[in-house]
Amino acid sequence: MHVLATPCVSALPTLQSFFLHPPIECAEGDVLACDIEVVRRKDNQRLMDVAIRHRLEGPRGTGKDRLTCFHIE
């Protein structure tokens, strides 16, 4: 999964990869549904907190929601 973040001072995009841990076992026809929230930290606007809520949906049913958090410096 890649999230594209474009800084205000540059026209060139910066890619950031977020690895979900533990890895998710997928089968053909499965879909990884994600909600991504990116919030600038109040103590330093250059730092960000990223929360990814994700679940696996597929022919075998829907998995439980999982939450993975990152602190970007």
Any key phrases for this structure?
6 strands; mainly beta; two-stranded antiparallel sheet; 73 residues
Topology (SSEs and partners):
Layout: E1 2-5, E2 14-17, E3 31-40, E4 48-58, E5 61-62, E6 66-72
Explain what the structure shows:
This protein has 73 residues and is mainly β. The chain has a domain at 26-73. The protein contains no helices and six strands. Strands 3, 4, 5 and 6 form a four-stranded antiparallel β-sheet that branches. A two-stranded antiparallel sheet has the order 1-2. Strand 3 and strand 4 form a beta hairpin. The two termini are 19 Å apart. The relative contact order is 0.25.
* Overall pLDDT score: 80
The class by helix and strand makeup works out as mainly beta
Q: Report helical residue fraction.
A: under 10%
Morphology call: elongated
Order of helices and strands: EEEEEE
| Low-pLDDT ranges | 1-9
Total beta strand runs: 6
CA-to-CA gap between the ends?
19 Å
Radius of gyration: 15 Å
Q: In DSSP terms, counting alpha (H) and pi (I) runs of 4 or more, how many helices?
A: 0
Largest sheet: 4 strands, antiparallel
- Beta-strand proportion: over 45%
Concise account of the structure shown:
The protein is mainly β and 73 residues long. The chain is built from no helices and 6 strands.
